[in-house]
Amino acid sequence: MILEAARMLGIEIPTLCFHEALKPHGACRLCVVEVRAGAARGGTLVASCVFPVRDGLEVHTSSDDVKGVRRGLIELLLARCPESRQIRALAERFGVAESPYRPRDHLCILCGLCVRACDEIVGARAIDFFSRGQSLDVKPPLLNPSAACIACGTCTTVCPTEAVRLEEIARVPHEHPVLEGRPAERCRVCGHHPATAVFPESYESWFKE
Amino acid sequence: MKTYRTHLLLCAGTGCVSNHAFEVKRALEEEIQRRNLGDEVTVVATGCNGFCERGPVMVVQPEGIFYQQLTVKDIPHLVEEHFLKGRPVKRLMYTETKGAPPVPRMNDIEFFRHQVLVALRNRGRIAPEKIDEYIAYDGYASLAKVLKEMSPEEVIREAKTSGLRGRGGAGFPTGMKWEFCRRSPGDLKYVVCNADEGDPGAFMDRSILEADPHSVLEGMTIGAYAIGAREGFIYVRDEYPLAVERIQMAIRDAEAYGLSGEGIFGTDFAFSVRVIRGGGAFVCGEETALMASIEGKMGRPRPRPPFPAESGLWGRPTNINNVETWANVPVILARGGDWFASIGTPSSKGTKVFSVVGKVQNTGLVEVPMGITLRQIIFDIGGGIPGGKRFKAVQTGGPSGGCIPESLLDLEVDYEQLAEAGAIMGSGGLIVMDEDTCMVDLARYFVSFLEDESCGKCLPCREGLQRMHEILDDITAGRGTPDHIDILERLADTVKKASLCGLGSTAPNPVLTTLQYFRDEYEAHIQEKRCPAGVCKALIQFSIDPESCTGCMACLKACPTDCITGERKKPHSIAVEQCIKCGACFEVCKFDAVRKT
Fold this sequence. Notes:
Chain A is an alpha+beta fold. Chain A has three domains: 2-93, Ubiquitin-like (UB roll); 113-158, no CATH class; 174-209, no CATH class. Chain A is built from six helices and seven strands. By secondary structure, chain B is an alpha/beta fold. Chain B folds into five domains: 6-109, 3-Layer(aba) Sandwich (Glutaredoxin); 131-341, NADH-ubiquinone oxidoreductase 51kDa subunit (Rossmann fold, 3-Layer(aba) Sandwich), CATH 3.40.50; 351-434, Ubiquitin-like (UB roll); 439-528, NADH-ubiquinone oxidoreductase 51kDa subunit, iron-sulphur binding domain (de novo design (two linked rop proteins)); 541-596, 2-Layer Sandwich (Alpha-Beta Plaits), CATH 3.30.70. Chain B contains 24 helices and 17 strands. In chain B, the strands form five sheets. A five-stranded mixed beta sheet of chain B has the order 10-9-13-11-12. Chains A and B meet through strand 2 and helix 2 of A and helix 17, helix 18 and helix 19 of B.
């Protein structure tokens, strides 16, 4: 896609809903660029994260139209999430001082990264978009606490605005009958649970002991 | 087959049915039996005749006499005078104005005279549920010719020659689209009919499906042959129960006759069609959202490329066309692409169906050649503006379209000409407005409609339309500020350029065209806090002129909040704080004493 090609060349294009590990979504529209020769209609703005490169394509990443649209989108974001430090940083980066619209009180920008990560990377599919238009939100199915969620925290990691957070609600005592008495170390990733450094080819030998 | 000397073609389109057409039908049949005319006169319930303003309508064949506004009470007299004694009833015929001489023949009436029926060729002349009647008017003859005499490439060539462009609104050349799909690699391809018609005021597709479902089925089958598809879907909005019923019946009947399904016309070409009902979302008229909906997913558009012709339903090459586009196909194959291309303008060939609604005398459904002017449609066919009011604007293309002012009424109906004026052809909705329409309020209405229907996926459409609505609410409520117009224009520009799909990218059109042609109305609302059309409730006030008031108390009785006081024969007055500005007093006063300022 145009976005990756531009980044390979060191050309900066802002994004919010793009992540290298996920299929592109094309929803935040911040990555729009102007395509002239080689497209169906010259002078159109397209989302660079979903537009495939093609021989002869002429792409303008900072034309007046692109700059104007970026400004307009950031103004909308700033009005939606005035308290988000990431959105404020984005606004500062592009010289948008304030927004002409009435402020709302969201942190979530509905970029869908959490939904897509839970689907494509984790495979739990515990959350999805719910409703449409103004009432669009991210929720588990039927709005019930999700049985499919494994509390892996991937959604909190990919969220660009810290809108998704994990909250500790209980401690689960666990026993490791297999690990008991064996040399174990702290898990390198979360630093919390003991993990055995050596795993056998089959557990039969352990059970025989 | 039984023959009758007289056929009574009674319109049973949804409009006339709402106006008791089925009761009229029952009364006719009973009276015909009572008078022992059952072997000579038959009643046929047809699809929408088009002249909805005058429903229930009925055409008597073979004379071609047109009756309108029929009621059950009219029937005994009508049957006796016309069908028994042979004397057509003048009182039930159409007159151009009250007191003018009646126009007995349908084809002499202005409303019908200028129309050229291609997609609507069978309107008002067949019973939609009888496949035999479709066949009697050369139905399925094109399909036979295509399967027996033409190759798929020849069919595509004919479609390209015709210049047919998508009638759903975008106007993409149909033949070219079929060719892309044919050329896409893969054995499994699909053909889809978009019957999700969502524009407020549009009922072209509904009428075609209700009146002549086989025309769509035949068209799709020809298209499937050309593309190499064996399966098709018709996606109908669920709010059209009669259309769903009729197209399902048509499919069953065609299958029973070997005209659909396996071994069509005894060849090894097979094409099966399924009807899918929509779930109530305007956005599902967008082709990628429609396909997602067919696949059982949420109806949200996805970015293109890839286009459906390359990768559509379940990743397979898919060709989607609108109902009206499909309905044109059998005629093009019968009479040739050259014939179709001889009608219309250099870039817009053939005819277009329009639903003419709003502040116009003759509301209804019309089919006219491309190139006819808007003035001709609104004034010659439409009969002009009722009530002696002045024309103000015509909205073409629904919420995605634009408002065209009087100065541009001589524009020809043509894809490019309308686009240059800032509007779009759209699916064919034509909403006429008069001096009592507030253009700012109108823009607000269309934005709020699209805001509701937005899928919410992309930022500019979801947030942008919400903010446009907020600003228009402010302006119409008297809270407009001088910088609002600039902010609105910039916002509209962002939404137009950055939106993911057609819903968002065309949503600003009503705002942009009203700003272009009616900027003075916006300025009056903002600077003077005044609504020139007298519509925006926050900016109008009702009062009673004591000089003109006769004290008849009619307004008092009409007022829902009892805010009018006054004795008989003494001037009345309105308590402004309790007034909800419903306008009932204004409507009811016969002395023009109620003033709107």
